[in-house]
Each structure stands twice: as C-alpha cells, then as structure tokens.
Protein: alanine transaminase
Amino acid sequence: MAARPGGHNLAVMNGPKEKVLTLDTMNACVKRVEYAVRGPIVLRALELEQELRQGVKKPFTEVLALCVHPDLLNSPDFPEDAKRRAESILQACGGHSLGAYSNSSGIQPIREHVAQYIQRRDGGIPADPNNIFLSTGASDAIVTVLKLLVAGEGRCRTGVLIPIPQYPLYSAALAELNAVQVDYYLDEDRAWALDVAELRRALCQARGHCRPRALCIINPGNPTGQVQTRECIEAVIRFAFEEQLFLMADEVYQDNVYAEGSQFHSFKKVLMEMGPPYSTQQELASFHSISKGYMGECGLRGGYVEVVNMDPAVQQQMQKMMSVRLCPPLPGQAVLDMVVSPPEPSDPSFTQFQAEKQAVLADLAAKAKLTEKVFNAVPGIRCNPVQGAMYSFPRIELPPRAIQRAKELGLAPDMFFCLRLLEETGICVVPGSGFGQREGTYHFRMTILPAAEKLRPLLEKLSQFHAKFTREYS
Amino acid sequence: MAARPGGHNLAVMNGPKEKVLTLDTMNACVKRVEYAVRGPIVLRALELEQELRQGVKKPFTEVLALCVHPDLLNSPDFPEDAKRRAESILQACGGHSLGAYSNSSGIQPIREHVAQYIQRRDGGIPADPNNIFLSTGASDAIVTVLKLLVAGEGRCRTGVLIPIPQYPLYSAALAELNAVQVDYYLDEDRAWALDVAELRRALCQARGHCRPRALCIINPGNPTGQVQTRECIEAVIRFAFEEQLFLMADEVYQDNVYAEGSQFHSFKKVLMEMGPPYSTQQELASFHSISKGYMGECGLRGGYVEVVNMDPAVQQQMQKMMSVRLCPPLPGQAVLDMVVSPPEPSDPSFTQFQAEKQAVLADLAAKAKLTEKVFNAVPGIRCNPVQGAMYSFPRIELPPRAIQRAKELGLAPDMFFCLRLLEETGICVVPGSGFGQREGTYHFRMTILPAAEKLRPLLEKLSQFHAKFTREYS
Structure:
C-alpha cells in the first residue's frame, strides 16, 4: 500500500500516537473489577494451598493417568477398578480420548453420575441430568448464571444480593457485568449467621435504585467458615420466593463441615422438602467444584451447576452460552466423575480411599479447631468457630495510630497490617477489606490448609506479630 | 419465619407466579448471541473431529500421564526424555502437582518456553514471557481482549471489524459484550483473500454509527482455509496503524499450511520487521491454541495470547481479569509446554515425533487437495483451494424453488440444504449462514479431518446429494 498524502500519514511522521487501549479508553466495568484473593499479597498463599494435596489423591491420579494415556490400561501396575473406571470414562469420550472436545454441557454419562450423586446426597430426591451443566471450575458456571440475569438500565439495572463478607468472585463478576452489588451483612456476633431481617433491609434499600433479581448464598461460607442451619435455609427460601429472587447457592464446600452439631443441607433438598409452591416454582442454581472438599483438584478446573425450576427457554440460552466456549476441560470432567462416584465397598480401592478421605477431613477438622483456639487466646483477636470450608476470618483490633498511618499510605488498615505481617514474618493472609466487612472492623482470611505441624507455629507467630504491631502503634 | 399477612404471601396462595428469569427479562445481549458451530446440526461433527487424533499423540499423552500420576516416573515403561520433561513441568507446579492452582497468567517456565517458541518461529525476533498469558483455549483469551476494548454508548459504542465469513466466536462475543460487529468481506473470487480497500469501506461505513477500535484477522482462515501473503499482512498493519485500530490476530492454525507457495507469516514478525513506528507503537494481540496444528488436543483447553505494545496499565487490568478465573487448566498448560518445545534431535522421542508430525500434516495436505478436487468436479459447487486450517468452505448453487421452500420453513436456504443432507446421508456440515456470507450466496463448512479412506466417499456422497437436491427443486 503506497503512502497516502494528507492526514493519516502524519501520524507515522509525527512521533508517538496515543494507544487505542488506555486506562481512559478501556472498558470501565473491567476497571471496577477487584479480586482480593489474587492480589499481590497472596502469591505465596498459593504455596500454602498445596498442602491439601496428600493422601487421597492417588485413586484420582491413577484413573486420570489411565485416561490420558490409555496404553497404561495394559499395565499390571494399576488396580482393576481404576482400569474399569478409566475405560468407562473413555468410552463416553469422542475418539476414546480426553484430547477431544466433549458436548458443551459435559460428557453425558458424567452428567448422569452427578445426578445420581445429588440424589444420594439429598436422601433420594431426584435430580435430572439435563439440568446439570459441567463447567470450568465453579467460577465459570457462577459467571454464566449471573450473565443471564443482567438486564435493564438506570434504576431498572439488575441488582444481586451478596453476603458481606463474600468471596470476591461475586463482586468482580457484578462489576464486570455492570450489575448492582447489593450487600447484606452476615452477623459476626452469631458466628457469621445469615439473618433474614438483614436480607430484607438490604433488599428494601436497594429497591430505590436498582431491580434486585437474585440472591447469592455461600454455604459453607467463604471466608466466614459458617455452616447454615436448616431453619435458616428454609427462611431464606421463603424470602426469595416472596420477593421473587432467583437463588444462587454456592455450595462448593459441601464436603467441608467440621464442627459438632453442624451439618450440610443443600438448598435443593430443603427446597424440595418444603413442597409446593416452593419446590415447583422457586428458581435455584446450585454450584459445586472439584477444587475443594477432600480432593482439592483445583488445577484441573472442574465443577458443575444444577438448575432447578429454570425457565426452559432460558436454560436453552444458558446451554448456548456454554457452547460458545466449546466445552469444559476433559481432565476436570473426568475427575468430577470420580468425585461424584467414589469407590464402592466392593472395589479394591475402597478401603484405602475411605481411610484417606477420613484422614484428610479429620485433619482439617483438627486444624479448624486449633485455629479458633489459638486466635481466641490472643487479646485483640477474635475468631468465630470454623464450622466448615477452609478458612478462618478472625477480627483484629488495630490501634488508632496504625489506622492513621495506613490512611497516610493510602492503604486499607487491614491491608497495611497484612503487608507488614508478610514483610516481617513471611506469613501471607488476605486482608478482610478484599472480602467486605462492616465499616470500622478489620479482619484477615487465613487458610487452615497448612500441615498441622506447620499451622501451629504459623498461628503463634501471627499472634505474636499482632501483639508487637499493637505495641508499636499504641 | 412466620407467614406474613398481606401482599407477599398472596403469591404463595395464588398459584404459579412468573419466573424471575424468562426470555423477556433475561440479558438481551445473551439472547443475541449466535454460535453456529455448536448448533444442533453439528453434534455429529464432534465425532468426525476425533479422526485427527492419531499418530503423534503418544509423546504428549506419555508426558501428561507422568504429570498427573508421578508414581509413573519410577516405571521403566516410559522413555527418559518424557520423564525429564514431566519432572521439569512438575517442578514448576505448586506442590509438584497438576492438581494445584498455578499463577493466573500460567506457569512461569511455560510462559518462557512459549516466548522461546515464538522467537524461533519469528526468526529470532525476541518475545517477552511477561507479554504472554496462558488461557483456557484461545477462545478464552480472545474474549478477554475483546472485553477490554468494549466502551462507550450509542454512537460511541466500540466497533470491532471481523471478517465475513468468520469463526462465530467473534460474533457471539461481540453480541454478548454489546459491541458493534463491523463486517468486512473476504474476496471469494481471490481465494478468500483480504482486501484493504474493503477494510476501508467497512471502516468508513461503520464510523457513522459506532467507534471502530479493533480489527480481527483469522489467518490461516476459519472457515475459508485462506493463508495470507506477507504483502497483505503488511498492508493490514499499515491500515490498522493509520486508522488507530488495535489488531487481534487469530493464528491458531499457524501449523496448518498445506498449499504450495503458501507460508505462514505471523503478524508479530511482520510488524517487527516493518520497524518503527509500527514495531514500537502498533498494538497487537496474537492468539494460539493446542486444539489445532498436528496435535489437536482440544479437550484439554490450552492456549495463549501474546500482547505487543499494549499499554502497561491495560496489561495489568488484563492480568487482573484473568486472575478472577484463578488459572487456566493445568493439563492444558502442560501440553502447551510440549507443543512449544517439541522433542529435540538428541532426544530419544525425536525421530518418532518428527515422523508422526510429518505424517499427520502430509495427510491433512492430501485431504485438503482431495476436497478441492472432488468438489470442483461437481456442477453447482465451487471450492477455493484449502491453503491451510482444517476446513473447506465451498459455495453451492441452490435452485430458486429450494430457496423458496426454505423461506416457507423459516430456515436459511443453506441451513435447509444442510438439514436435508444430514437426514438423507448422515453427513453433518455447518451452513455458511452461521459464519456469514455475501447476501444471495450459499456455502457450507466441512472439515478435512476424516481419515482419507472415509473422506473420499463422504465428498462423493455429498456431491451426489447436491445433484439430487438440485434436480428435486428444479
């Protein structure tokens, strides 16, 4: 192409032009996205999270190895039930291989196994495989459902109720989608319980400036570690029904319940047991993942959503959206299959599997208790029981001079605390401000995943640092 | 919660209420999304696509098996170079395992290997690992970059130029993001070549009602199979520079070039060789995938984007967006590592790898030629040479009465043809209307992936069906 006279080529001559994409001209919604869990402060947390990876992984990795390299099906080194399992997964795959695209909603027999898992979990209440969509981790499915809900402009913009504190995927996705985040506060004084009166307050207040259409629940709670009672769940369902809210139940920690007296109740089960009109009309999406539980296979990115009472036309639209990304990663689908149909008593791997699963969960339970105990022995730190999930979210008192100093540095006070902690002790925790908290309160989120012999010194070091920090700024 | 008197509980009594989410109230952008490639007609195409899966896969699956189940590192059945490779990948993983989250941008050593691959590919022009972001297949990265570009309202809404025919990920993503799709037509009479005059026409026309900010190129072309010349790429870069357009180069078929005289030139290489101001200022994102080439590991969902001359502040925002989804699936990252650093001449696997890679590519080249030859022997079908990628996109003549009949049925004429073809022959091809085509022309996309001994009868059966269909409606 020859150079053209006039305007355009001046740019070529006259030195640097402005970029097409700058902070000023880029998608403003993207700029508003915040995601504390992957901020600079948590790079090291990744390392800690690895500690979960022990024991029970072997049956999974054996089957996955057989799936990715089927030559191994002839090897005498693998147990027969692992081979049968791998063979059945491969049978369901196009070209007998994990390397091919699957159906966009996931491999059909795996959707069926998920339905059977849900049915067992929910005491026999049926689940329909056609209402189950496999996903790239739970995050992917959560964003897809939120996407469907977004509509309207100005005062009719979609509002979505989310708990505070929350897992920041929600605030990030709502910012990106230009929906209105409607905060309801969990009650720290009642071990982070959800209170329907507070839901109602948040809803009424929001109705002035947006159109609330969905209610997100995280149970067991991230970062709170709270496990909801059956009564609470019933009340939430009644509320959602009366107020015409689509329910989104983030239940990725359903296998992680430790506290005595606490038990996981799925929203689906409670909804169905409440009978009509709830069971026949209340819209619900429930999310699960292979990244948590006792398996922690987060790197493989597997999960699913089950939808209940969704308008079939909308469900078709959801399926279409999932198809644009072709399919969820096959290794994640394969491991989901193993998670939802673990070895049975007659299988050679059963005893080992059960023993290792119990060991992992018992270990987590012990660490949950240890965390609460150590923190609550420290003046200025108060930690609710870690009933479930994988985190403690203790409240910390910070001296006014530290708060002042943080403000001078342009930092949230708990971010300032966490940065100092990281610098002086190497311990990496995420400041509460990334999850949301009541004005004037400060927290951090710490995982209970480190091995017990490492966790105790970590907790003690952290407590000592808090004392030192408090003295320094008093 | 006790039942409350008054308004809300009436809903409970008075039978079915309206759903929160209906076709009328859902996200209108989602409804506008269309994605022909995964429409009902292509369910069977998935099966065909499996045929690629042969030969060269073994070195990949061996290493992947070693990575997912490291116990195998002690097995004598795996070659030493596969073990070394697996060990080096695992070294870079948190907890020495593919089951853990990685850095959101991907495992650092793999980003470095991608940079080295690009540098080799581009004759030594350097690539910076920090400009490379691993992704869940190329689709994921393409949508992320489009997301950054979306801004403005009304006549200032972002416009994005895309080729027609296009791969429908682009139209789907633009619809979802509420951006304006600006069509530029590829020239069927010149083997689907891109013409800068046509780009200019499309741009000028679009400027009346939106703000065009980006230009998407698919090279080698999907569905066209066209491979762009170096001259064409230079002209496109000059055009983008003069018109201030961000360049998005979808280069996922870079290993799939078959025609004599055709050669893949990366946009990055041409841009850099053009020197300043282009090389120092033109913004570019180039996408690649493990789903195509000679490996076809689509089920593992792996890919990457390299960004060039991107505003560092925007690049940080991009990294943030990627972190919200935590990380790309680890097995896809591991296989990307193998794709970008294949066995070297000194490795035990080298000879077998080279032989199988060459065999797969030679086979595809033969099938590309066969497709063109068979179709062009049929009256009423005209097929451009399949210079690259994995598809033919022949033009078909349809008799006026068939077009009339399709309209009565509410179908696009080529959709009607493809549905009849599927019913009567079991052959599944995607109608051209899903990719876009000039008004009044009709096409379909067919993959060249089936094994040669199956492809020839398929092509002949399809040709015979076209003749029969034409007679029937004449």
User: Anything to note?
Assistant: Chain B has a mean pLDDT of 87. The first strand of chain B starts at residue 132 and ends at 135.
